[in-house]
Fold UDP-N-acetylmuramoylalanine--D-glutamate ligase.
Amino acid sequence: MSYKYSGKKILILGIGLTGISCINFFLKKGITPKIIDESKNPDCLYKLPKNIQYKLGILEKKWILESDLIIISPGISSFKPILIEAKILGIEIISDIELFSREAKAPIISITGTNGKSTVATMIKNIAEQSEYKVGLGGNIGFPALEMLEKKNDLYILELSSFQLENIISLKSKIAVVLNIKEDHLDRYPKGFKQYKKIKLSIYNNAETCLINLKENNFFLKKQNKKYITFGTNNSDYYINNEKSNIFLYYKNKKVLDVSKTSLYGYQNYNNALVSLAIADVMNFPRDKSKKILSTFINLPHRFQIVRRCNNISWINDSKSTNVNSTQIALENINTQGTIWLLLGGDKKSANFNILKNCLEKLKIRIYCFGKDGMNISKICQKKSIYVHDLKTAMILISKKVKSGDVVLLSPGCSSKDQFNNFEERGNLFITLSKELS
């Protein structure tokens, strides 16, 4: 289907990387859109091409309601009253991912989930390139999807957040997967977790093959008449099995890979490798290429990354932990006789941190809570917790008490936006301080 945009009044919301990519997309088609950002000083304002009309600081009602098409950046909620009003009036509101899907000429692999998206997307990219495919990887991973259209690719891999899935209509994935769905971004969704989950599952709507996590989404199988491949339980097509001191990835009762002999660290990453293996098999990538990449894959930066070992003390940077579930997973993956020094805090996004209570009470742990919601989080396990204003203060205090055999873990369970620009900045500060203080 060919989409025509000429003659339409087009408005873009958000002057970030996504918004700039949308501007450039339309300019190449000879169309000049308008753009709005709620911030008075957006980061990418300097990238805005000349002669583009823009407004800052407020979602200009007149511009919105006179538009024919609105492209909304993921950082802006679709549930703002003015945007709901626009939809009721019949104004089309879509995401940059929807624009991309209308133009893409190569197969698309779509990946979402509360945790693990970037790791799986990167694993698949590496396997595809090892199999001599030209691959574009974009979306939530930090590279705007529309910019992938500038090169000819054999395959596109989209890492998609729930924000990006809110306004997708015609995304036809060759393979779609929801890795997991845990409580996150509840401050974004008026109807709570059910709404968040429904948006995540919408990735399957037009997919050719659906990878289903049987541990979480087996009910979904009964509702659709599609091709399915399953993972997550021992009854699945793909599963993980512990045998003595070894851990294997299995397909249909056949051992494929001994992950305990790879560079992968942590059960969550074994599961990411399992899903990547399944996707690679559906794509008919040579199995030996998949095994080679998965065997040598190293955890991505800021994802349960051991950044320093000194005096028998491990410093682990898990700054990408932006929800409670990811912190719980990180704690389950630590094996030490010493004390765990946990750095927890930031903007909790209305999440319920009480789910950590039982886990924290059982562990030999000291918890340093910081940031916007740090004081509130510290009350969950008061006897083991202390509140400080910021991450640096917490790390200085920990460095004076930490002993041989201990683990210092940054797994904040929160967004970093209260005190940092992003989780990378938070993780990089942890790395720097871990070297200086140890």
Q: What stands out?
A: The CA atoms of residues 128 and 285 lie 7 Å apart. The chain has a mean pLDDT of 95. Residues 267-282 form the longest helix (16 residues).
